[in-house]
Amino acid sequence: MSETFPKAIAVIGAGIMGEALISALIASGISPSSITISEKREERGLQLNQQYGVSVADLEFNVRSSDAILLVVKPQDMSSMLSEIRPFLSHDTLLISFAAGKKIQFVLEHVGESFPVIRVMPNTPALVGEGMAAMSIGSYVSNEQRDFVRGFLQATGRVVEVEEGLQDAVTAVSGSGPAYFFAFVEAMVASGEELGLSQDVATELTIQTIVGAAKLLAVSNKSATVLRENVTSPNGTTAAALHSLKESGLDEIVKKAMTAARDRSQELA
Questions:
Q1: Which of 1, 38, 183, 267 has the most CB within a 10 Å radius?
Q2: Average model confidence (pLDDT) for the chain?
């Protein structure tokens, strides 16, 4: 990372993801004294100041003082936010957008056509250092700026770079993906209870099974297909369960859900 860039970082929006990114910035070597947040909730700003040592400032001061700005606001708030900060931006300020669906061109239309902009789709496992982020690079971004963003995102987990046209698909796979997993866990726990297990036991069995399976997939160098086949004995219990999932149209259910997420991401553009 350059010793000169960035000198000061603004984080606009300090919710759950904003906090994860603050933690990642610090973990990547950025001094807390270089990070300033702008947050509407005064008590939230105070909490993050006490926990991480970052500063809190009003929006105008923060934007004027920073050469990299993390925009961690809801997609529906992006237009008004960009219009509000536009008068305070320096021409070479790096804008990093974490808003689902909002294209780089959308940002440029609000702030000016020659600003460096990077679009990022993170996910919530970034909170525990196991996130998956995809970044797309605007035309005016320097290598130094690109390396900075990739560097601090790596502190949240893994990072890939994709063409911006693929960001809606990324949203459907990894951006929204954790929620599919959580929904499946909910269903497994509920089914375990219906089969006679207590909620506590059903929850522990389900979570450890999922965590163990995910770790096995991550470290075994075997595909999900091979691992599924390895645990599926002919005419056994697993085979019966998988047959039921197939008969219920699991593949089509997943495809339909991910397509819906992709389509909604496009609608938010």
A1: 38
A2: 94
pLDDT in tens, 160-180: 999 999 999 999 999 999 999
Residue 1 reports pLDDT greater than 80: no
Q: Whose CA is closest to 70, among 110, 4, 20?
A: 20
- CATH homologous superfamily, domain 177-267: ProC C-terminal domain-like (1.10.3730.10)
What is the average pLDDT across 51-71? 96
Closest CA to 98 of 70, 59, 138: 70
Domain spans of the chain?
A: 9-169, 177-267
The CATH number of 9-169, from 3.40.50.720, 3.40.50.300, 3.20.20.70, 3.40.50.2020, is 3.40.50.720
Q: Are 107 and 115 in contact, with CB atoms under 8 Å apart?
A: yes
